[in-house]
Write a structure and sequence with these properties.
Elements (H helix, E strand, L loop, with lengths): L6 H17 L2 E5 L10 E5 L6 H7 L8 E5 L6 H9 L2 E4 L12 H13 L4 E3 L17 H12 L7 E8 L9 E6 L3 E2 L4 H6 L1 H19 L9 H19 L6 H19 L1 H20 L14 H13 L1 H10 L1 H11 L8 H28 L2 H40 L1 H11 L2
Parallel strand pairs: 1-7, 2-5, 2-6, 3-4, 3-5
Antiparallel strand pairs: 6-7, 6-8
């Protein structure tokens, strides 16, 4: 049967997981105890980050090989389709793929049911499409269409569970940013038996409603779309400080603080419009002023670094520049390849995915090719081995160094802003507080 255990795929996961770990500063998994693969499971994550979202989940499920259901349009090319099947990805057709193609879902859903019988975990994005914003879209019908027929066959004794998975990126485009992955309480299909026997459609809608509610509690869900930007700015300005104050020993403190900020603003919007309008006006004014001085909400305006600390960091940056330069020179071809690949995608949502794929594929390929050239040129096995190890290590350091340099430059800008315009800085600090 398709999507059974694949040794080659298991070996490939070693590299995909390594690339994932190198791409993020921290991968923070919460609620792992809810993901017990001894049961038939369907993982249901929100979908913000193209290829990265499934990779985060696939590489977490280590005991078994997760099978993902993805939109069918990516299977149009037969060669790509074979690769996707090998990667344990199954097509799901949507109305936009053509009404006639919807009948093809019957095969995918039947196969999904057979996989659940074998306790091979499944995963799909219940929103049905990619959503880069910090909000949850409506939950689609795929999960009940998969799980109800198979549970009905076993009189709801199979034990299938849907696991809501919240994925949150504080900086979705940033290299070495963090990711929070939260596994919610399992939604047991046996709980819907009576309702399904009375009215299958109502039972399906109830699952969608329950899953949506659970997912909303696991992510940062901004539903007040009119003030979306102001909510995001409030998180940028306040979440770090709030996390240290309220959740000093909690590894998901930043996520919890971000959720607190959204809830507080929502509460003000519903019960105290005057205070809400005042805060929104302050946020807008602060953002406008920062923009005039070349700053953004991502800059550490409320916590500027001391000049001595910045000087020491700058000195260390200069001292390590030769290593970074070596890394950049020897990584020039992966960089060019990354730029070329990025040019194939018009939407910026693919930036993290292209960066991830480039690091996983292009760096090893060019490392091997350049090592062969070095070996032929020097005729030295020792030099070749040293280069083979140093090329990826120094290139990764160079990427880290670049991020560090850009961040340090922003910190210097904030420091100068505070010292040159103290009155403006103090006014902004007052405006951005919750």
């Amino acid at each position: 049967m398709k999507y059974e255990f694949n040794r080659g795929y298991a070996f490939t996961r070693i590299f995909t997981n390594l690339a994932l770990r190198l791409n993020f500063g921290k991968l923070i998994y919460v609620g792992k105890e809810n993901a017990d693969t001894d049961y038939p499971l369907i993982f249901a994550p929100n979908h913000r980050n193209a290829v990265i979202d499934p990779m985060i989940l696939i590489n977490f499920i280590s005991k078994k090989q997760l099978v993902f259901l993805a939109r069918a349009d990516v299977f149009k090319n037969p060669k790509i389709a074979r690769i996707l099947v090998w990667l344990h990805i199954m097509p799901v057709y949507r109305i936009r793929d053509g009404v006639d193609n919807l009948k093809n879902n019957e095969e995918s859903f039947e196969l999904s049911g057979n996989l659940l019988k074998k306790k091979i975990p499944l995963a799909l994005f219940p929103e049905g499409r990619h959503n880069p914003k910090l909000s949850l879209l409506s939950i689609q019908k795929a999960i009940p269409r998969i799980v109800f027929p198979i549970e009905e066959e076993f009189d709801f004794t199979l034990g299938s569970r849907v696991i809501p998975v919240g994925i949150y990126y504080p900086d979705i485009f940033g290299f070495l940013s963090d990711a929070y992955i939260t596994f919610g309480k399992p939604i047991l299909m046996s709980d819907y038996k009576e309702q399904y026997e009375i009215n299958p459609q109502l039972a399906a809608n109830q699952i969608r409603q329950d899953l949506g509610k659970s997912l909303s509690e696991l992510i940062v869900d901004i539903q007040n779309d009119e003030y979306y930007d102001e909510y995001v700015h409030a998180i940028d300005w306040n979440a770090h400080t709030l996390a240290k104050q309220r959740y000093p020993k909690n590894k998901e403190g930043y996520l919890l603080a971000s959720q607190d900020i959204v809830r507080k603003l929502d509460k003000l919007f519903e019960h105290d419009c005057q205070t809400f309008d005042s805060k929104i006006e302050n946020f807008r004014s602060a953002h406008k002023t920062l923009k005039e001085y070349g700053l953004t909400s991502k800059d550490p305006v409320s916590n500027p670094s001391a000049a001595l600390s910045l000087l020491l960091q700058t000195l260390l940056l200069v001292v390590t520049f030769p290593i970074a330069l070596f890394g950049f020179i020897n990584g020039i071809f992966p960089i060019i390849g990354y730029k070329k690949l990025l040019g194939l995608f018009k939407e910026e949502q693919f930036i993290p995915s292209v960066r991830y794929a480039s690091g996983m594929l292009l760096v090893p390929i060019f490392d091997l090719l350049q090592t062969i050239i070095i070996g032929i040129t020097t005729m030295s096995l020792g030099v070749s081995i040293a280069y083979f190890l140093l090329m990826p290590a120094t290139f990764y350091f160079a990427c880290w160094w670049r991020k560090w340099a850009k961040g340090l430059r922003r910190k210097w800008k904030v420091n100068r802003f505070k010292n040159r315009f103290p009155d403006v800085w103090e006014k902004i600090i007052a405006q951005i507080k919750l």
